[in-house]
């Protein structure tokens, strides 16, 4: 009888606790944010290596020093090792000492992304400008 009474009391306590328990909606407000990087078509063409489009855009008056997403066209060419485009940009008056929003030059982007050919072109161009 004692066991039955104890079990009944425990069951009663458990049911009282369960009835008075608040339901917690612990869901996260899942609102995925999308980050949109706005890169102009000129720099997209450089990144893709589309030299014909790059030539056309330069002929149409595209600014070879205008930043897109914090980087100049020369930085995109250096980052993606687009050597022909990089030479074209340099010949068109690209400023190579300009720093990106992250504080890096085109030479640094070439170094970081192991773009050896672009790195050599930039070193030569910078040394020729200093002479």
Mean pLDDT equals 84
Give a count of the beta strands, DSSP E runs of length 2 or more: 0
User: Per DSSP, what share of the residues sits in E-state strands of 2 or more residues?
Assistant: under 5%
Poorly predicted runs: none
Q: How much is the radius of gyration in Å?
A: 31 Å
Number of helices: 7
Order of helices and strands: HHHHHHH
Largest pleated sheet: none
The share of residues in helices is 55-70%
Structural class: mainly alpha
Outline? elongated
The end-to-end span amounts to 105 Å
Q: Could you provide a short overview of the structure?
A:
With 131 residues, the protein is mainly α. The chain has helices at residues 2-20, 41-48, 51-59, 73-79, 83-91, 106-112, 116-130. The longest helix has 19 residues, at 2-20.
């Amino acid at each position: 009888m004692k066991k039955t009474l104890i079990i009944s009391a425990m069951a009663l306590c458990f049911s009282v606790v369960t009835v008075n328990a608040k339901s917690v909606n612990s869901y996260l407000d899942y609102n995925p944010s999308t980050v949109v990087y706005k890169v102009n078509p000129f720099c997209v063409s450089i990144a893709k290596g589309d030299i014909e489009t790059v030539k056309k855009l330069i002929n149409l008056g595209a600014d070879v020093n205008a930043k897109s997403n914090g980087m100049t066209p020369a930085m995109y060419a250096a980052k993606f090792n687009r050597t022909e485009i990089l030479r074209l940009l340099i010949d068109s008056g690209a400023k190579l000492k300009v720093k990106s929003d992250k504080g890096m030059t085109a030479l640094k982007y070439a170094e970081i992304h192991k773009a050896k050919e672009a790195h050599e072109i930039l070193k030569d161009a910078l040394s020729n400008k200093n002479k």
